[in-house]
């Protein structure tokens, strides 16, 4: 039976961005697939008791910046902790990802390109031109941008979000190996171990 890492994430999450490359490497090392599932942050926060960044107490906002700098340095990944276009509506990007996935594409590189546009390139991923550029850079057809708001794509986005709520996901990124949940990019070592134990 093939192994799968199910990856629930928010498009604009810096933590999902910091974890993505390592998740890809772990999947490759274990000959596992990554099932990427973008979800609606507002719905997940509402379900799990979280609040958007600007509504959090100042000490929590300040410590988030400390942690972003710490992980950026530790992982040696370029990251602007205060990007020009953040917060940003990730629904157009999520729909584009789902449309490409629907056609059988591995969307890992597309997700990486879009997240880099937020956290490295200071681009607005709510703008169609930005998404079109990410598609072109990753060799994917521009038609997926046009399909981002198709009824079936929107339904899938809502289904992923409802599935996440059913699984009691409360933040992102969250990874699953079989029925075991791992919240946060700092739990990827445990994802790696879970896959090793299944071999």
Secondary-structure arrangement, i.e. CATH architecture: 3-Layer(aba) Sandwich
Q: Rg, please?
A: 16 Å
The spatial strand order of the largest sheet comes to 2-1-3-4
CATH superfamily: Glutaredoxin
Strand content range: 5-15%
Unreliable stretches, pLDDT < 50, 5 or more residues? none
CATH topology: Glutaredoxin
Q: What does the oligomeric state look like here? A: single chain
Q: How far apart lie the N and C ends?
A: 10 Å
Number of helices: 9
Which structural class best describes the helix and strand composition? alpha+beta
Write down the secondary-structure element order.
EHEHHHHHHHEEH
Short note summarizing the structure:
By secondary structure, this protein is of the alpha+beta class. It has nine helices and four strands. The protein has a four-stranded mixed sheet with strand order 2-1-3-4, sandwiched between helices.
What labels would you give this structure?
199 residues; alpha+beta; Glutaredoxin; 4-stranded mixed β-sheet; 9 helices; 11% strand; globular
Question: Layout of SSEs?
Answer:
Blueprint: E1 3-9, H1 14-29, E2 32-38, H2 41-48, H3 58-75, H4 91-102, H5 108-119, H6 128-137, H7 143-146, H8 151-166, E3 174-177, E4 180-183, H9 188-197
Parallel strand pairs: 1-2
Antiparallel strand pairs: 1-3, 3-4
Written overview of the protein:
38% of the residues are buried. A 4-stranded mixed β-sheet has the order 2-1-3-4, sandwiched between helices. The chain is of the alpha+beta class. It has one domain (3-197): Glutaredoxin (3-Layer(aba) Sandwich), CATH 3.40.30.10. The chain has 9 helices and 4 strands; from the N terminus they run E-H-E-H-H-H-H-H-H-H-E-E-H. The chain has helices at residues 14-29, 41-48, 58-75, 91-102, 108-119, 128-137, 143-146, 151-166, 188-197; strands spanning 3-9, 32-38, 174-177, 180-183. Helix 1 (14-29) runs antiparallel to helix 5, helix 4 (91-102) crosses helix 8 (151-166) and helix 5 packs across helix 6.
């Amino acid at each position: 039976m093939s192994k799968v890492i199910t990856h629930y994430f928010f498009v604009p999450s810096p933590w999902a961005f910091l974890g993505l490359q390592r998740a890809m490497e772990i999947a490759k090392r274990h000959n596992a697939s990554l099932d990427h599932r973008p979800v609606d942050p507002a719905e997940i926060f509402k379900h799990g008791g979280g609040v958007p960044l600007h509504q959090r107490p100042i000490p929590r906002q300040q410590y988030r910046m400390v942690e972003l700098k710490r992980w950026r340095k530790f992982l040696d990944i370029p990251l602007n902790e205060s990007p020009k276009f953040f917060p940003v509506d990730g629904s157009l990007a999520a729909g584009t990802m789902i449309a490409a996935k629907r056609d059988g594409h591995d969307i890992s590189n597309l997700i990486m390109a879009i997240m880099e546009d937020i956290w490295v390139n200071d681009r607005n991923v709510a703008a169609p031109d930005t998404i079109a550029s990410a598609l072109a850079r990753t060799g994917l057809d521009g038609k997926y941008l046009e399909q981002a708001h198709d009824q079936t794509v929107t339904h899938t986005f809502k289904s992923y979000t409802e599935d996440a709520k059913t699984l009691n996901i409360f933040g992102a990124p969250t990874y699953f190996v079989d029925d075991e949940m791992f919240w946060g990019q700092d739990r990827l070592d445990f994802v790696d171990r879970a896959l090793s134990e299944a071999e």
